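From the methods appendix. Each design record in this collection lists the tokenized structure first, followed by the designed amino acid sequence. Records were kept in a plain field format so they could be parsed without special tools. The example shown here is representative of the layout used throughout.

RECORD:
FOLD TOKENS (363 positions):
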């Protein structure tokens, strides 16, 4: 556990790792105003320490299990090993795996040998999920989580090959891209600015603007540090959490001017400080939901923080090549980006139809 201590009028954070005590100087005065900031820093450090400890434990278990014969690996043992790997992922990912595993154990018991699982078991698993009236997207998600566990077993030589493949999955449904219209977006940003002025916290409005101007996922945005923003080359270094990939996204003139004028405080931060140190994804989400409620936006799952990313992508799909938009979004395959161009095509065809109808009616 990490602890906060006061020394010489400053806050310090101490924690233990591998039987060694570590001390971090926060560079923040020991005042009541700074306590919340230090607490957030302590929680971040604590999370990283727990991940490090889990990683060390994961390596130890893998090493100790390296001599276990393939026939000795049960589903329970496979789950135990894979869960250690999952400690390095998000809580939501771990929760989805837990739900998927609970369902999978209804088909394949925990004491079952992993090398005895067959393709037929995967068919039964999919049928079980379908019988629960789950959406195709949920079925695919749970199936992929179990599939990843078996791929993990193959990678570490507990199995020769995985019995699960994607042939049994229902077709992936294509959902329409929902974006903010101009009026709604103006209302949202105006309300965010009002909240910002009332609370004297500029970060929330700035976060929404950067989500809109960068197309970043909230998790990736709050991990941006001062040193990641290169004003000379007009680009931002990004670590994409979803794919563990690093990219440099260019700053448009609008984005460059916004950061330069509205976020001048960045110049006062140390290079290793986050530009939004007091925010987590869950906090941004809560404030955004309250903002929607204030504006009377009742659709619960239609307009979310992801809608900023979709609005960004749709905006640039109108003028950039698909490869460029795919790069900005961090997509490995342009096929993932095509949905935004499909929306633009629909808009263009509708506009042509309206023009034709107008000209035809004048005849």
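DESIGN:
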């Amino acid at each position: 556990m990490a602890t906060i201590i006061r020394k010489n009028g400053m806050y310090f954070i101490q924690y233990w790792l591998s039987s060694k005590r570590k001390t971090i100087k926060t560079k923040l005065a020991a005042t009541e105003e700074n306590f919340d900031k230090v607490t957030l820093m302590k929680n971040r450090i604590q999370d990283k320490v727990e991940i490090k400890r889990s990683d060390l434990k994961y390596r130890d278990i893998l090493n100790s299990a390296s001599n276990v014969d393939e026939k000795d690996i049960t589903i329970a043992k496979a789950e135990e090993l894979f869960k250690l790997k999952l400690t390095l992922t998000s809580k939501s990912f771990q929760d989805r795996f837990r739900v998927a595993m609970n369902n999978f154990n209804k088909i394949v018991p925990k004491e079952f040998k992993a090398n005895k699982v067959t393709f037929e078991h995967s068919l039964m698993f999919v049928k079980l999920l379908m019988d629960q009236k789950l959406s195709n997207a949920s079925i695919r998600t749970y199936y992929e989580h179990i599939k990843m566990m078996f791929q993990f077993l193959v990678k570490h030589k507990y199995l020769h090959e995985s019995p699960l493949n994607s042939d049994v999955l229902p077709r992936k449904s294509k959902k329409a891209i929902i974006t903010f219209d101009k009026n709604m977006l103006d209302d949202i940003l105006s309300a965010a600015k009002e909240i910002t002025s009332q609370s004297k916290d500029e970060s929330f409005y700035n976060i929404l603007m950067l989500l809109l101007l960068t197309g970043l996922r909230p998790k990736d945005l709050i991990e941006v540090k001062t040193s990641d923003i290169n004003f000379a080359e007009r680009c931002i270094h990004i670590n994409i959490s979803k794919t563990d990939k690093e990219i440099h996204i260019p700053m448009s003139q609008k984005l460059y001017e916004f950061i330069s004028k509205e976020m001048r405080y960045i110049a006062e931060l140390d290079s290793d400080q986050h530009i939004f140190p007091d925010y987590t994804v869950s906090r941004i989400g809560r404030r955004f939901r309250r903002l929607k409620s204030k504006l009377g936006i009742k659709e619960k799952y239609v307009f979310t923080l992801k809608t900023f990313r979709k609005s960004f992508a749709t905006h640039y799909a109108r003028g950039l090549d698909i490869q460029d938009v795919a790069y900005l979004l961090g997509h490995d395959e342009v096929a993932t980006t095509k949905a935004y161009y499909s929306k633009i095509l629909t808009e263009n065809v509708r506009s042509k139809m309206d023009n034709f109808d107008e000209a035809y009616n004048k005849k």
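APPENDIX NOTE: The beta strands are 3-7, 10-17, 20-29, 229-230, 235-240, 245-250.
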